[in-house]
Amino acid sequence: MPLSDSNWATAVIVSGALLVLSLSQATLAQIYEPPRPYAMWDTWLFPHGDEYHLFFLQSEPGVTWNKIGRAVSKDLVHWTPLPSIPSKGPSGAWDEAPTLTGTTAKVGDKYVMFYGSATHGQPIGIMTSPDLKTWTKYPGNPILKITPPHYTGGDWRDMCTVFEPNEKRWHGYLCAQTGEPSPTLPKIADKTLVAWVYLANRTQRGGSVLTIDSGPNAMDPFDGIVFGERTPGKWMAGSEGFHRTPQDQSSHPDETAGPDELVQMAIVYKGKQIAIYRNAKPYAAYDVDKSSTFGNGSAVIMGLRHVGAGEQSGRFFAGAIEEARVYDVALDPSALAKLEPGKPSDPKPLGQWTFVNGSTADAMGTFPNGELHGGARVVDGKLYLDGNDGYCITPTKKPRPCVAHLVSKDLIEWEYLPPIFADPSFYDMEVPDYFELNGRHYLLFSSGRTRRNTSGRVDATGTWCVTGEHRDGPYHVGKAPLLLGCGHGRFDNYVGRTIPFEGGRLLYHHTAGGGPVTWGVPKIVRQSADGSLWLQYWPGVDKLVTRTVIDGAKGVPVDKARATGTWQPRSGGVMGKSEPGQKAVLWFADSPAAAMITCKVDAHPAKSIGLVWRWDGTRGAGLVLDAKGDIATVAKMAKAGDTPSPQTVDDYRGMELGRKPARLRILVRAHRVEVYVNDRWILGTSMPDMPAAGRIGLIVEDGSAAFDDLGVAEIEPLIIPKSAD
After folding, report:
1. Rounded to 5 degrees, what are φ and ψ at 279?
2. What local confidence, expressed as pLDDT, does residue 30 receive?
3. 550 with 541: CB under 8 angstroms?
4. 494, 467, 535, 506: which is closest to 158 by C-alpha?
5. Is the backbone of residue 685 left (phi > 0), alpha (psi -120 to 50) or beta?
6. Which terminus has fewer CB within 10 Å in the chain: N or C?
7. Is residue 62 exposed (0-12), middle (13-18) or buried (19+ Cβ within 10 Å)?
8. 555: alpha, beta or left? (left if phi > 0; alpha if psi -120 to 50)
9. Is pTM, for the whole model, over 0.85?
10. Are 399 and 297 in contact (CB under 8 A)?
11. Residues 6+ apart with CB under 8 A from 342
C-alpha cells in the first residue's frame, strides 16, 4: 500500500496542532529534560532545515512509554517543548504495549516515523505527517514483523532508515535475533534426569553428573544432578541462582560410595515438586515456587554444572558415568527401580548416552553428538571426567543478537535480507545506527547487559561500534569498540546515534544511571587513521556559559586560609605541593554548582592529583588522576581527616597520563558529570547523591603538580520546562 493521500485519509489523527509559543518565552538554555511530570528514555533526532526535531520515548506517572515526546531547537542547546504524540494503542491493538524506539524520515512531501510495540514479537508500524506537527497512524500497521528464515526469537525493534540515492531505495537496520535454534525439542516441563555414576572422591564440590541447560549466561535456567555445591558430600538439584535448590540440606544423607561403587542418581521434576532418588530410593523431596521449562536450543551437559557458571573452582565433576538419560516425563519410584544401564525402558527416554564403542551419540537421536572438552574422555563404555576442566556437551545453535538488514523503495514493502552483523558475545543489541565516514562504514548499537572489558573500561556497557569496508559488510569488532559507555557495570550513558553535522557526524544520546534521565551532551565523532572512532568535545556546549569565575590568564586566587600544603600562583595557573604521604588542597571561594572547569595538568610528579566540586565540608565529588597507574577516576569524595578521600564510581584507563601534560575539561550540571582529556570524551557519570552546592578545589597528593591555563566558568543550570501538553 503506497503512501498516497487516499490511503492515509482513513488514519486517526493522534496529535493536535503545534503548540504556539513565543520562542523568547518558551526556549531554555539546556541540554534537554522533558517537562514535568513526564520522563524520557531513548531519543532520535531529525534535522529539518535550520531546526532539529527531537523525538523520545515519553512516560507519565504510572504509565511507561505511552507517548512520543517532542522538542525543537535551532542550535541543539536552546529547546522548545512541543506537544507529545500518543503512540500506545488501546487494549487489544497491535501497539497496546509500551512504545519502542523509532526513527523519522522524509519521503516525498510526507514525513514518516517508525515506532514499535513491546508486545510479543515486537512488531513495528509507522505514522505519517504532512508538516511534522500532526501525526496519523498508518491503517496497514504493523508493517514489519519477525520473519524466518533469517530472523526468529523475540527481538525486533528500534528501526533506523537510510536512503541510498544511487539505488533509489531505503536501507533499514533494526535489532533482532538470527534464525531458528537447534536442536528442535518438545517443551520439557515435567522431566527426569537419571545417571549411573562412579564418584572419584566425596570431597569434590559443585560438579554435575547431568544437566539440562538453556543458555550460556549465569541466570539462564538449568537443572542438574549436582554433588556437594552447597553442602559437602551431599547430592542436590542444581539450578541457576539456587532458584530450585534448598539452602538447608541437613536432611540429605551423606554419600558413602567409594570410587568403585556404581550409584544410580535421579531427580524427578513434576510441576512444582522436586524429588531426588539414590538407587531408586527417596533421598530428598521439596516444593518450589516456580518450575523450570526447557525447549529448542537446550543443551545436555555431563561434568560441568552450568555453561554460565563463573570461573571459580568447584564446577566440574570428578568420576565416571556409565550411562545418562533425560526423560520428558516424571518417572515414579517403581519405574526408576526397573531402569538398568544398556536396557530399554518404557517410556523411552528423550535422550540416552551409553558411550558404547567410544561414542558420545544420543541413542534416541534427539540431541546432537556430544562434544568432549578438557580432560573428558570415553574409555571402555564410560565417560571419564577429571574434575578440573573435563565435560561433555551437546552442541546448540541459539538465536544470536544481530542487526537485521532490510531494503525498500517506499518504506512500506520491505525485502528481508540476511543479518548484516551478528555476534554471540553481545547478550542483546538495541537502537542501531548506520553511517559512512571517509570511505568507511559503521554500525552502532547499544548493549545494556553485555559486560566486556574494552576501550579502557572494565565491565563495560553502552553504545558499541563495528566497522566494515562496504555498506553490506562484513562488519568487524575492533580493539576499542565501545564508543560511548561506562564501566563497573554502570548504566550512565545509553543509545548513541548520529546525525550529519558540519561535514562530519555528531553523536547524541540520553543519560541514565540515577537521577532524572536527560538528553545528553552532544559529541563530535572523530576518526583515527586506523578507522576507529572516538568522541570529541562539541564547542556548542560553550553556549551554556553565563560568566567567567576564574581566568588563569588574569591570575588564580590563593587564599591560604582555604588551603593546606603549599600553593603558589604561576603564570596562567597555580602550583601545589604536599608533604610526603600528605595532601595539599586549595579551595576557591566562588564555586558555582553548575560549572565548566578547565586546566592543563602534569600528573606525573605527584602520586595523584584531583579536582573536587560541590564539597560541603564532609562530602562531594571529584576527578582523580593517577599517572603511574594511568587511571582517571570519577569518585565520591568523603572526609578523611582534613582532606577529601575518593571512592571510585567509574574510571578510564590507557590515556598515557605520565608522558605529557593533559588538558582537562569537566562539566558539572545537575546530577551529571562529563570528563574530557585533551578534549576527548572519556567519562560521563550520573551522581544523583552529590551535594546540591559546595566548593570547587584542587588536590595534590604526595608530591607537586601544576594546574595551568586554569579556568572555572558558571553554566546554565538544568531548567525543567512547564508542560507543553
Report:
1. 50, 45
2. 67
3. no
4. 494
5. beta
6. N
7. exposed
8. left
9. no
10. yes
11. 323, 354, 356
Q: Which residues face 540 on adjacent strands? A: none
* pLDDT score for 318: 98
Q: How far apart are CA 612 and CA 527, in angstroms?
A: 32
DSSP 533-600: EEEEE-GGGGGGEEEEEEEGGG-----GGGEESEEEEETTEEEEE--TT-EEEEE-S---SSEEEEEE
- What is the per-residue pLDDT for 723? 65
Share above pLDDT 90 across residues of the chain, in percent, rounded to a whole number = 79
The DSSP call for residue 454 is E
Taking the mean position of all CA atoms in its chain, how far away is CA 666? 25
Transcribe 613-660 into DSSP letters. Answer: EEE-SSEEEEEEEETTTTEEEEEEEEEETTEEEEEEEEEEE-S-TTTS
CB atoms inside a 10 Å sphere around CB 328: 19
Q: Would you place residue 15 in the very low, low, confident or very high pLDDT band (cuts 50, 70, 90)?
A: very low
Could you give phi then psi for residue 615, rounded to 5 degrees?
-85, 115
Q: Is the model's pLDDT at 3 over the cut of 90?
A: no
pLDDT of residue 722: 64
Q: What is the mean pLDDT of residues 99-107?
A: 96
Q: How far, in Å, CA of 499 to CA of 249, rounded?
A: 59
Close Cβ partners of 30 (under 8 Å, ≥ 6 residues apart): 77, 78, 79, 544, 716, 718, 719
Determine the number of helices (DSSP H) and then strands (DSSP E) in the chain: 3, 50
Q: Is residue 21 predicted with pLDDT exceeding 70?
A: no
How many C-beta atoms surround the C-beta of residue 528 within 10 A?
9
Residue 28, pLDDT score: 57
Query: How far apart are alpha carbons 474 and 466 in whole angstroms?
Result: 10
Tens digits of residue pLDDT in 366-400: 999 999 999 999 999 999 999 999 999 999 887 88
Task: Express each pLDDT in 147-188 by its tens digit.
Answer: 988 998 889 999 999 999 999 999 999 999 998 788 989 999
C-alpha cell recorded at residue 20: 504556539
Distance CA 538, CA 528 (A): 17
Structural domains in the chain, sorted by start? 28-180+400-537 (2.115.10.20), 191-393 (2.60.120.200), 545-715 (2.60.120.560)
Write out pLDDT tens, residues 233-288. 999 999 999 999 999 999 999 999 999 999 999 999 999 999 999 999 999 999 99
Beta pairing partners, 223: 212, 239
Per-residue pLDDT for 717 more than 80? yes
- Identify the three-state secondary structure at position 333: helix
Distance of CA 699 to the CA centre of its chain: 34
Cβ burial of 370 (10 Å; 0-12, 13-18, 19+) is buried
Virtual CA dihedral for 35, 38, 44, 46, nearest 10 degrees?
-40
All residues at 6 or more sequence positions from 542 whose CB lies less than 8 Å from its CB, including other chains: none
Looking at residue 98, the DSSP 8-state letter turns out to be P
* Residue corresponding to grid cell 570528563: 675
Is the CA virtual torsion 360, 366, 367, 369 positive or negative? positive
**349-353, 375-379, 629-633: which has the minimum mean pLDDT?**
629-633
Within 8 A by CB and 6+ apart from 116, the residues are 99, 100, 101, 102, 122, 123, 124, 125, 156, 157, 158, 159
The whole-angstrom distance between residue 575's C-alpha and the CA centroid of its chain comes to 42
Where residue 604 falls among pLDDT bands split at 50, 70, 90? confident
Label the pairing between strands 631-640 and 595-601: unpaired
CA angle 695, 489, 530 (to 5 degrees): 95
